[in-house]
Amino acid sequence: MLSRVADSIYWMSRYIERAENVARFVDVNLNLMLDFPGSSDQQWQPLVDISGDTDDFAERYGEASQDTVIRFLTFDTKNPNSILSCLRTARENARSVREIISSSMWEHLNQSYLMLTAAASRRREISDPHELFSSVKTASQAFTGITDTTMTYNEGWHFCRLGRQLERADKTSRILDVKYFLLLPKADDVGTTVDDVQWAAVLRSASAFEMYHKRHGRISPTRIVEFLLLNEQFPRAIHHSVKAARESLHAITGTPTGMFRGPAEQLLGLLCSELAFAQVDDIIGGGLHEYLDALQTKMNQIGTHIYDTFFAGRPAAPKRQPQRRAGVAPIA
Amino acid sequence: MTFAEYDPEGFFDEMFAGAGAPRAGAHALTQVIEALPAGEIERRQRSAERALLAMGITFNVYGADEGTERIFPFDLIPRIVSAGEWRTIERGLKQRIHALNLFIDDIYHERRILKDRVIPDYVLETAASLRAPCAGMRPPRGIWCHVTGTDLVRHSDGQVYVLEDNLRCPSGVSYVLQNRNVMKRTFPQVFAASRIRPVDDYPSHLRGTLEYLAPEGLESPRVVVLTPGPYNSAYFEHSFLAQQMGVELVEGRDLVVSDGLVWMRTTKGYERVDVIYRRMDDDFLDPTVFRPDSMLGVPGLMEVYTAGRVALANAPGTGVADDKVIYAYVPKIVKYYLGEDIILPNVPTYICAEDADRRFVLDNIASLVVKCANESGGYGMLVGPHASKKEQAAFAAKIAENPRNYIAQPTLSLSRVPTIVEGAFEGRHVDLRPYILYGKEIYVLPGGLTRVALKKGSLVVNSSQGGGSKDTWVLAGDPRLDTDRPDIDSVMATMRQEQRSC
Question: Does the interface ipTM go beyond 0.95?
Answer without folding.
Answer: no
